[in-house]
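Summary for the lay section of the report: proteins are chains of building blocks that fold into shapes. Here we show the chain for ATP synthase F(1) complex subunit delta, mitochondrial and then a coded description of the shape we predicted for it.
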Amino acid sequence: MPLPAALLWSPALLPPCAGAACPGHTLNLPGAGLLPWDGLSIPPSLVTVLFLLSPSIQVFYNGANVKQVDVPTLTGSFGILASHVPTLQVLRPGVVTVHAEDGTATKYFVSSGSVTVHADSTVQVLAEEAVTMDMLDLATAKSNLEKAVSEMAAASDEAAKAEAQIKVEANEALVKALE
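The coded shape description reads as follows.
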């Protein structure tokens, strides 16, 4: 039986009783001990990827194991293989690469979020936004970067500067990923 390799999570998908004891509803949230694949064995050479995306409603993987997942984090980029040490990291804008069992690699641009590696070789990627790289355009990314730099220069208060800085960083990472 294949393990689920992706799970979509959005607050809208939770039952109204989420967080409370409620017969008939199981919160299949990683770490809750209620995972639908609890008790199944994961092949020792594979990583199971759980892509958790909010607010976009997309499942990138479902029912497939992968060899490796490369993620960009605030402390640096790293690759996740089976039996990786458990960790929780903050994603920075950049490219998440998923290496399939057949050797192919698929790249996704993520704006921000978190990545959690569990002891059972499951990986959760919780991204604010994620798209496949083929959906992106370099000219548009460069134009958006120029606009963000202009917004930052024109910002009159700290909050506006901080928002513009986030846009600049995300667009710089996007341009770098596409070049």
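Put simply, here is one thing we learned. The beta strands are 47-53, 65-73, 76-80, 87-91, 94-100, 105-110, 113-117, 122-127, 130-132.
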